[in-house]
Amino acid sequence: MNRQGLEGYAGGMEARFPGRIRRVGYNHNEIHFHLEDPRDAPGICGHVHASMKARLATVVCTDERRHGNGFVIRYVFEKEGEDAFIFIIVPLGHGNSFPSIILHVPGASLYEREIRDMFGLVPAGNPDTRPLVLHEHWPGDAYPLRKDFRLGTKAGRREGVYPFLRVEGDGICEIPVGPVHAGIIEPGHFRFSVLGENIINLETRLFYAHKGIEKLAESMAPEEIVRLAERISGDESVANSTAYCQAVEKILEIRVPERAKKIRTVFAELERAYNHVGTLGGMATDAGFAFGAARMGILKERLMSLNEALCGSRILFGVNRIGGVVPDIGQENKELILGRIGVILRDFDKVAGLLGSKSSFMDRLKDAGRIPKKAARDLGIVGVAARCAGIDLDTRRDHPYAGYNIRNGRTPQEVVRDQIEMEKRAGDAMARYEIRINEVRDSFGIILGLLDLDGDGLCGEVPERMEPYQSALGYAESHRGQTLHWVMTGEDNSIFRYKVRTASFCNWQIMGHCVSSDIVPDFPLVNKSLDLSYSGNDL
Amino acid sequence: MLSISDVVIGILQAAVIMALSPLVTGIMRKTKARTQKRAGAGVLQPYYDIAKLLRKDEVVSDQSSWIFRVSPWINFVAIGTAAFFIPVFLAYSPFGLAGDLLLVIGLFALARFFTMLAGLDVSSSFGGLGSSREMMLSSLLEPAAFLAVFVVAVTYGGTNISTITEAASGSALLPHPQLIFAAIAMFVVMLGETGRLPFDNPATHLELTMVHEAMALEYSGKSLALVEWSQSIKQLILFALIVDMFVPWAIPQYPGPMAVGLGLSAFVVKVAVLAAGVAFLESSVAKWRLFRLPDLVSVAIASSMIGLVFYYL
User: Fold this and answer.
1) What pLDDT shows up at residue A408?
2) Which chain B residue is nearest to residue A358, measuring alpha carbons?
3) A111 and A239: one domain?
4) What strands lie across the sheet with A189-195, from one edge to the other?
5) Number of domains chain A contains
6) Which residue of B has its CA nearest to A365?
7) Is residue A79 part of a domain?
8) How many angstroms away from the CA of A285 is the closest CA of chain B?
9) Cβ neighbours of B197 in A, within 8 Å
10) Preferred mutation among B206, B211, B281 to probe A, highest tally of A CBs within 10 A
């Protein structure tokens, strides 16, 4: 969005909250409102969320005590339908608590709990006082993301019990599942309260795979963090490294060559495609339709071996670097992509037709795991989970980056048709299935459209030195949804703060809401249809 | 009184069922693997699995009682006993005097009763979940099984399996159209009783969706070997019943070296074809919604009813 549009917001906000906003800053498509007093935060955030129709995208806390600012909290809102991010920046001074905004913005609850665990700041007014990231065995006085917490500290251990929500009544049973599961999947605990087969309540306990990514990044060189970002969640490596690289490129004002942008996009779409195909296969497995799963598995394998042929990694590690990309797509690889994708697309259509014609499979999907649109909007759900409930979010279109150019390609008729399509979506597993099928085809279309690569280089000019304490937001759309990486540079070419918010962090919240009218044996299918990452959530 | 040769024939027929049952499971797994474009394990793999499990130690939950420990044995004995009433390579079973089709269904119910108790006994939530689903399904499947059996019984004049098989092998299917409907019902009941898709997915790792496997989840070592073997035997008994009642061709009436050879090879071929057919069917459907399964069972019941109407017409 252009500067004038952002200044329009600034004028509106200053008129609405006179004297409450100390300073307004601009950074590309970001507008920063620095508040005077933390106590104004709930009201102003509520206004941005409700009246300006902006979705809470992430909340970043930084420990700036060494610079005299105390802790600073940045609420990042994403304006619906426009390429603008609104930052509400709240310096806490010397206080160790901050006012909770969840009464105005319900989706903030998890972020506030995360900040309490990692920084030891108390969200005053948030009724959920349970730990989130750090489990009950973590000592109460160690806050990993504070600057005085040294990397490598042995934190010790204490005893504790996590208070699950208890559902009581005649015939209510509890089913604990995980964190160790029967299949080869990541750790997560699900606590079902059931009445017969009907799910009354589902509580999800995560963060068993917490790796300290954000703390680790503060000890690494910026170019090394690209590799770290790829490992946040192995199957969304391109999306995460793209988001990180774009944040740094935004700070350093690097001009990324067009060719590199297109190659980045091709790999991002290859990643989306192979994962969507994998998820479709997984849905067939969880519905007990092994034949469909096997056929999808074959297609996923072919896509992954194409990945390997193009960049040497089946899961697309090592594609991005700050300022551009590593692997080139030459004439030979271009023909390889054209040939293989043509065949894969033909087979994909066949398999999709087969799945669509299986009434037993379609019947399982229909009405399973219905996501309520209101809950999805309130909690800030992203990606396929939001789109299946009729919320039209797509970072690739809303905040064009790399080689994406989606909005310009649609005629007004197509825009209207898409809107009608959105309204019709029921939010169930069937809607997610259909969206994934369509997105695989779209991904192949985008890849084929980007293959006329022009001559210039693979990497822009990267400055030797970084200005300290500059920040920017990087974003990308993985197959799960929007991933946001906020980067602030530190002294001596270091990273002062690296905040990651993947789509899984937002979308895990909806799990408890969408199974409330389902029965227990449908849960694995609903879970798979949402396709959330544990590693990408737990960081 | 049974002669010595009758006793030998009876024991041999039961032994064939017990010995071949893991092979049938292996054939079905192989067929499923091939339809999914996988190589799959060899057809003898279930034998190796049982042999491996028999050598292993058991882990038993300290929350469980004697029920959990004896249940696999009761299972094995009940289902093993049923195997003695099934004609395999001859059109009759010498022990058939002691038990008929109703007893076979009753023995299956006894085995299932203890399996369900064992599922509840370990006080794991999955076991309880499996038991409650099994109770729901069995309360539907058993009446359907009886009804299907009655259609056959009224046609051939009795519920004794030897009587039925002897009468069937001497007659043709065409004069008895009700048998086609009974066969449809029996096939559905067989899918449910053996825990096949679309009722239950025997290959799943998802505890939350399991029926039979959920009850057996806590078993290990020798007990698990018994549970799995009993399940295979039960499956082969049901296959054999379908083969005996509805495709009774090339079953010799009197013993003799040639007759036994012919009967045995006919049995093996028929069962293998049926097993492969079930495996193909399993590959082509997804597991049904749990609460939609009663619809499928009611198809079986309706089919048997139509069969009965045809009989009296």
Assistant:
1) 61
2) B285
3) no
4) A172-177, A189-195, A198-205
5) 2
6) B289
7) yes
8) 8
9) 288
10) B206
- Residues of chain A found within 8 Å of residue B201, distances taken between Cβ atoms: 288
Order of strands across the sheet that contains A21-27: A21-27, A30-35, A85-91, A70-79, A54-64
pLDDT at A112: 94
CB contact under 8 A, B36 and A173: no
Cβ contacts from A onto B, under 8 A? 82
Distance of CA A321 to the CA centre of its chain: 20
Is ipTM strictly over 0.85? Answer: yes
Type of residue at A376: A
B291·A197 Cβ contact <8 A: yes
Over A326-392, what HEC string results?
CCCCCHHHHHHHHHHHHHHHHHHHHHHHHHHCCHHHHHHHCCCCCCCHHHHHHHCCCHHHHHCCCCC
B201 min Cα distance to partner chain A (Å)? 6
Domain contains A417 = yes
- Domain with B299 in it: 4-312
Segment (H or E) for A269: helix A258-286
Rounded CA gap, B133 and B193, in Å? Answer: 13
- Domain CATH number, residue A261: 1.10.645.10
CB-closest option in A174, A286, A519 to B291: A519
Q: What range defines the domain where residue A362 resides?
A: 213-538
Residue type, B178: Q
Q: Would the CB atoms of A288 and B201 count as touching at under 8 Å? A: yes
CA distance A422 to chain B (A): 27
**Are A398 and A297 in a shared domain?**
yes
Q: What is the pLDDT along chain A (539 residues), one digit of tens a residue?
A: 678 888 888 888 888 888 888 988 998 889 999 998 889 999 999 999 998 889 999 999 999 988 888 899 999 999 887 889 999 999 988 888 999 999 999 999 999 999 999 999 999 999 988 889 998 888 888 899 999 888 888 888 888 888 888 898 898 988 999 898 888 889 999 999 999 899 999 999 999 999 999 999 999 999 999 999 999 999 999 999 999 999 999 999 999 998 999 999 999 999 999 999 999 999 999 999 999 999 999 999 999 999 999 999 999 999 999 999 999 898 899 999 999 999 999 999 999 999 999 999 999 999 999 999 999 999 999 999 999 998 888 899 888 888 887 666 677 888 888 888 888 888 899 999 999 999 999 999 999 988 888 777 888 888 888 888 999 999 999 999 999 999 999 988 899 999 999 999 999 999 999 998 899 999 999 999 999 999 999 98
Cβ distance B288 to A182 less than 8 Å, yes or no, reads no
Distance CA A264, CA A243 (A): 11
CATH number reported for the structural domain that contains residue A14 in this entry? 3.30.460.80
Say if the Cβ atoms of B204 and A197 lie within 8 Å.
no
- Which residue out of A360, A367, A523 would a mutagenesis test of the B interface target, given it has the greatest number of B Cβ atoms within 10 Å? A360
State how many domains chain B has: 1
Q: Which of B125, B198, B282 sits opposite A176 (nearest CB)?
A: B125
Q: Do A289 and B285 touch (CB under 8 A)?
A: yes
Residues A223 and A114 in one domain: no
Tokens 């590593």 label which residue? A326
* Residue whose C-alpha is closest to residue A244's, from A231, A255, A257, A235: A231
Q: Considering only alpha carbons, which residue of chain B is nearest residue A191?
A: B125
From A93, A124, A155, the end of a domain falls on A124
If you measure CA to CA, which chain B residue comes closest to A294? B36
Strand partners of residue A87: A32, A76
Whether residue B206 and residue A289 make contact (CB cut-off 8 A), yes or no, is no
**Position A198 in a domain:** no
Determine, yes or no, domain membership for A25: yes
Q: In which residue are the tokens 């799945």 written?
A: A355
Residue that is last in its domain, among A76, A102, A124: A124
